[in-house]
Amino acid sequence: MENQNAKAKTELSHRTYRYSIRVIEFLDSLPQDVVTGVIARQLLRSATSVGANLVEAKGAGSKRDFTNYFTIALKSANETLYWLGLLRDGKKIDNDELRSLLSETKELANILGSSILTLKGKR
Fold this sequence. Notes:
CATH architecture: Up-down Bundle
Radius of gyration: 15 Å
Largest sheet: none
Helix content: over 70%
Shape: elongated
Structural class: mainly alpha
Strand content: under 5%
Number of strands: 0
Number of helices: 4
Number of domains: 1
Distance between the termini: 16 Å
CATH topology: de novo design (two linked rop proteins)
CATH superfamily: 23S rRNA-intervening sequence
C-alpha cells in the first residue's frame, strides 16, 4: 500500500507539472491587452502554485504540515478556476484549450479535496 501511495503522489506531481506547462503555453497564446495581462499574471501565479505546493508537501516535517500544503494547493486550484472563468466570461475567450484547462483544474481540485479528507481521516 505504501508503494501505491508513493506512486500516486509521484503521478500527481507529474500531472500538476504538465498542467503548469499547459497553462504557461495557454497564456502565451492570449491577446496582449491590459485586462488580459492582469488576469494572466494572476492565473499564472495560482495555477503554478498547485504543483509548487505539492512539491513543498514532499518536504513537510509532519502529517499536519503535509495536509496544509495540500490544502493550499486546493485553494490555488479553486482560485485558478476563478481566473479561467473570468477569461471565459469577461474576455469572451472560449476555445478548446480553455475548456480543457477548466476540466483539468476541476479534476485536480477533486483529487486534492479527496486526498485532504483521507489525510484528515474523514474518508
